[in-house]
Design brief:
about 475 residues, mainly beta, Jelly Rolls, Tachylectin-2, Chain A, 38 strands
């Protein structure tokens, strides 16, 4: 088993008795908001972007959307631009909480390059998905950026409420850019790599199983739904296909404003931005999971994973987790964008916001998205058959009562010497001890049976 087995779905489970799956909501960091717009060129901070941890420099690095957000026009790169132009900001942090914005000297805004903006794309860089790509042999392509570039050259239209918006221009569509350091970028000569738009956050991942780059966004999805395309070289992409949309269980009018995606322990894990346009106009985050990025399953009855902030707070209208889930010790860091007030739409024609959009940090236990939980009565979980591999079985569990693991044959009969002692501790990594060594079963097809009482099991794996 190359990855930890989680319980986001039940594909590895044969039987589950007197147990239930529980979604564990992400916890907000006490120092939120961790980043906000505070300069003339960045009055908002939107995580239509990406956060990574750079192990070489031992720093967190953030690429986020921002802009002057002024009425009328501004000068950007020496050209007239709308005040709502979207630009790419950059920040770094040693601890993932306290951030610095280095002056990069790249983008001219109203006659000054004294800012932390990255020069990428052409006009409007929307939804910047970044992949640090260790498998590409070309160091100049180590960082890959996928985003919606639109707006043409000084092309504007008047919206029905009188606002000026960017019009369509030649070369609009999904663009790729490449970089050796994540700061200095070169635009792909074949842009647009997908001649369609995607007015949301985007995702870009490397699927090591199929050895392909996979992108997600609204392109080819037909509205606020999720499309997918793949490529062998991150330049030539197939036609995007719709892969995720509201179904008959969702309330009429439900929309998916976006779904940032990462591959976590071999699973495609999506952060679903549920938009209730006709109800409260709010957007929060739930979970979806897929084994291949094409067929998706909503996790545990579509429960909310990151709820809205308290009423009146900077995030009481939208709470949207972005791409990349960063393991930090025994926790996962999840960065998100918060917005005060609902989205404008059918329910709310206009909204007056007391604060501008800002960024927050939420954390969960490692592997802690979903657990299998037992109460006072013993519950039992039996896995599907698996080929035994490794010398040790590890579990991530909070066993306040007890947790016993048995190795069985394919028929579910417990093997002699392979019933563990009871585990009664709360740890993200516990080695399960047996009287006989697991290595003696290498290559054989077996099952695992977990017997639990007053416990939560988050994952298991072999080493």
């Amino acid at each position: 088993m190359n990855h930890r087995c989680l319980f986001l779905d039940l594909r590895e489970v044969t039987r589950m008795e007197r147990l239930h799956r529980r979604v564990h909501q992400a916890r907000r960091h006490p120092e939120n908001p961790i980043l906000k717009g505070e300069n003339p060129w960045e009055k908002v901070a939107s995580l239509y972007g990406t956060v990574i941890f750079d192990p070489r420099e031992e720093i967190f690095r953030m690429w986020y959307l921002t802009g002057p957000y002024s009425d009328g026009f501004v000068q950007v790169r020496g050209r007239k631009a709308l005040g709502n132009i979207t630009l790419l900001g950059y920040a770094t942090s040693r601890d993932g909480v306290h951030w610095e914005k280095p002056m990069l000297g790249q983008v001219d805004v109203d006659g000054s390059k004294e800012n932390n903006l990255i020069d990428v794309g052409r006009t409007n860089c929307e939804g910047f998905a970044l992949l640090y790509d260790e498998v590409d042999p070309d160091p100049q392509r180590r960082y890959k950026g996928f985003y919606w570039e639109h707006g043409g050259i000084d092309t504007f239209i008047t919206w029905e409420d009188g606002r000026l918006l960017w019009g369509e221009g030649e070369g609009d569509g999904m663009w790729m850019s490449f970089s050796a350091d994540g700061i200095h970028w070169t635009n792909c000569k074949e842009n647009p790599v997908i001649p369609l738009g995607s007015d949301t956050t985007q995702s870009l991942v490397w699927d090591e199983k199929w050895e392909k780059y996979v992108v997600f966004g609204r392109m080819g999805a037909g509205g606020r739904r999720v499309g997918r395309a793949e490529s062998e070289d991150a330049v030539h992409f197939g036609e995007p296909k719709l892969v995720f949309a509201p179904d008959e269980v969702d309330e009429e009018g439900t929309q998916f404003y976006g779904m940032p995606i990462d591959i976590y322990e071999g699973l495609y894990l999506g952060m679903v931005w549920d938009y209730r346009e006709g109800v409260d106009g709010a957007i929060d985050t739930s979970l979806a999971v897929s084994r291949d990025g094409i067929d998706w399953e909503r996790v545990v009855d579509r429960q909310t994973f990151l709820s809205l902030g308290e009423e009146g707070s900077w995030e009481d209208g939208m709470a949207r987790i972005t791409q990349n889930f960063i393991v930090v010790g025994d926790e996962i860091y999840l960065y998100y964008g918060g917005v005060q007030g609902p989205h404008t739409g059918k329910k709310f024609k206009s909204v007056e916001r007391r604060t501008q959009p800002m960024l927050g940090l939420a954390t969960i236990r490692r592997d802690g998205f979903v657990s299998v939980e037992a109460g006072a009565e013993e519950g039992v979980l039996l896995t599907k058959p698996m080929e035994m591999g490794g010398e040790e079985l590890h579990v991530n569990a909070d066993s306040r009562g007890e947790l016993i693991v048995e190795v069985t044959d394919e028929e579910g009969v417990t093997l002699e010497g392979y019933t563990s002692h009871s585990l009664a501790e709360d740890r993200t990594d516990v080695v399960v001890g047996f009287d006989r060594p697991l290595g003696g079963l290498a290559g054989q097809t077996m099952r695992l049976r977990f017997r639990m009482r007053e416990a939560n099991l988050y994952s298991y794996w072999f080493i």
